Amino acid sequence: MTTVDARPPAAARRQGGASPRLSRLPFPVRLLARMAFTLLGLLTLLFFLVRLKGDPAGVLAGPSATPDQLDAIRAAYGLDRPLFVQYLEFLGDTARLDFGESILSGEAALGSVLGALPATLLLIAITMIVSVVVGVPAGLALHHGPRFVRAPLGGLLTLAQAVPTFVIGVGLISLLAVQLGLLPAFGSGTVESLVMPTITLALFPIARTARMIDAELDLVDEQDFLRTAAAKGASRRRVVWRHALPNAFPAVTAALVVELSYLISGAVVVEVLYAYDGIGKRLVDAIFARDYPVVQAAVFVIGVVVVLVNVFGDALLRVLDPRTGRAAA
């Protein structure tokens, strides 16, 4: 028996959950709108989080500040104005990329943060390259390797996903820096100083990439075109590299983009652990020093980088798998 949707046409069109007007917008416009709303939410959250501990003037001045000193700080930072006015001024300053000056150094807060950004991006880029270069062969070995290889490799991958990042870092410092003296325990700016942070940060995405390759190959193995290629005389190596892997890469690429967003936050722990002078360490130092202009600038830059990474991931996934774009249309 045929069922009839008795709802009004407008309600029937809303069944999919997404607004028809938004779905008709061009893909770049939808991405820009999503970026704008995400950054607005991030800035709003940042503005109110800074004020959760009470009056920021009291936090900046310290417990021994006099009332006159507190009034002077409020006037200097505009904290004597109504909260909503402060919020609008904060959004306006952010639109002009003006976060004020660092309380500690006196330099522009955004300039201080951007000066540390290249070191963080370098660490993350090397980590992603290592994750792919090691993770893809590990996934192939986990899927097609002999049993005596798959069993210990699976255990190592599980261990890499289970052990916290800071535990791995402390272990590497103890072994490679303290006991063997092969690498510097702290610092940045040299090739040697990148080795242990990269290993620490890369172990989890290596394991994730290998697991994703294994899982996607399981799905691809069930497809008819692989059996057809094998029936035509193609070698197992050719079937895997020419047919199976390209069909597994779209889902793996999407997972790596998500992993890249996590790496940006995970880099904070690694940078603090190894005293690596990146944006994460600068953010933590500013939090402990109550240098709120630098804190706000660092969170803003990290948020922008994460949003851009996700936008790039969406565009890349559409290129690798056009079905994604057609499904979203």
Query: What CATH architecture label of the largest domain applies?
Result: Orthogonal Bundle
Overall number of domains? 2
Counted beta strands: 0
Question: How many H/I helical runs?
Answer: 15
Tell me the name of the CATH class of the largest domain: Mainly Alpha
Low-pLDDT parts are 1-18, 325-329
Task: Please write out the topology.
Blueprint: H1 9-13, H2 20-23, H3 27-49, H4 56-61, H5 67-77, H6 83-95, H7 109-144, H8 147-162, H9 165-179, H10 192-220, H11 224-231, H12 236-273, H13 279-288, H14 292-320, H15 322-328
Helix pairs in contact: 3-14, 7-8, 7-10, 7-12, 7-13, 7-14, 8-10, 9-10, 9-12, 10-12, 11-12, 12-13, 12-14, 13-14, 14-15
Highlighted features:
disordered N terminus, 329 residues, disordered C terminus, MetI-like fold, single chain, mainly alpha
